[in-house]
């Protein structure tokens, strides 16, 4: 018990403490972290639920999570299975897949800015092939800003998940996959009916973590590429936490959104883990 005390104290100070402070601050009218504050009860939550920007952020976050997480996990698993088959240049493919995960958020944002700027690679390519009518300011069009944010998420995460799934699949007994081939299963059936079933629990853990990463960590990409605009077309809940706290000096409202994020994160993580729990 004594040897576990340092870890227990670390958990209380750096995890439980900040989490509890989110709930406490959400019940105050705090404007900064050091300014005097007063208890206002549920006023921040009433303001938040009556705010159209909040509901736009909920919608955008639901679309982002609902598209990015399933697509990323499915594509990551399929690419991981391909790596598991040891194709030519498998080592090089692992490096290429993993490279995007090594880049900072700022670097990823600059790459996509260079590609999607009005004079960027995408518009230049469209003009080259005679499709200049499709060219647009991808980062300033309300119809494309959120898809761009989701594209950044997918580009940076699919390869990383592929490496994770590929590594996990190598731990499977080789004779099981071989037996499925002898029984007449093609790669597709072996992948989904055999390999997936054997690492279903691991897939559930990865999907749960990816859900949390997407839910909580989109603020940096939104800030660097669109700042939530144009208007509120690309505002997400995590960006709204940042915006209210550091741009509008409304810490109480910001932490009320943080409470909603915590509840969504906990509920979603439990639901995903339960749905994809290993059946072995």
Automatic annotation (TrEMBL):
InterPro entries: MetI-like, MetI-like_sf, UgpAE/MalFG_permease. GO terms for cellular component: plasma membrane. Residues 58-272 form the ABC transmembrane type-1 domain. The keyword Transmembrane applies. The chain crosses the membrane at residues 62-83, 95-116, 154-174, 194-213, 253-276. One of its GO terms (biological process) is transmembrane transport. It is a multi-pass membrane protein. It is found in: Cell membrane. It comes from the Bacteria. Belongs to the binding-protein-dependent transport system permease family. This is Transporter. It comes from Jiangella anatolica.
């Amino acid at each position: 018990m004594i040897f576990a005390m340092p870890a227990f104290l670390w958990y209380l100070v750096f995890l439980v403490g900040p989490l509890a402070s989110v709930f406490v601050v959400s019940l105050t009218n705090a404007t900064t972290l050091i300014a005097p504050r007063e208890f206002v009860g549920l006023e921040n939550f009433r303001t938040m639920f009556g705010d159209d920007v909040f509901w736009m952020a909920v919608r955008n976050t639901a679309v982002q999570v609902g598209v990015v997480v399933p697509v990323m996990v499915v594509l990551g698993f399929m690419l991981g299975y391909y790596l598991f088959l040891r194709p030519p240049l498998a080592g090089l493919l692992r490096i290429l897949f993993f490279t995007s995960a090594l880049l900072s958020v700022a670097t990823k944002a600059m790459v996509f800015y260079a590609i999607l700027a009005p004079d960027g690679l995408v518009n230049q390519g469209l003009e080259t092939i005679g499709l200049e009518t499709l060219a647009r300011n991808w980062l300033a069009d309300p119809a494309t800003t959120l898809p761009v944010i989701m594209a950044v998420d997918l580009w940076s995460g699919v390869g990383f998940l592929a490496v994770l799934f590929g590594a996990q699949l190598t731990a499977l007994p080789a004779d099981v996959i071989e037996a499925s081939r002898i029984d007449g299963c093609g790669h597709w059936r072996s992948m989904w009916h055999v390999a997936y079933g054997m690492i279903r629990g691991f897939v559930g853990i990865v999907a749960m973590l990816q859900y949390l990463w997407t839910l909580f960590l989109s603020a940096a990409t939104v800030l660097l590429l669109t700042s939530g605009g144009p208007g509120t077309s690309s505002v997400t809940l995590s960006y709204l936490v940042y915006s209210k706290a550091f741009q509008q000096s409304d810490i109480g409202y910001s932490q009320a959104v943080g409470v909603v994020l915590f509840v969504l994160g906990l509920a979603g993580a439990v639901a995903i883990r339960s749905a994809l729990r290993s059946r072995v």
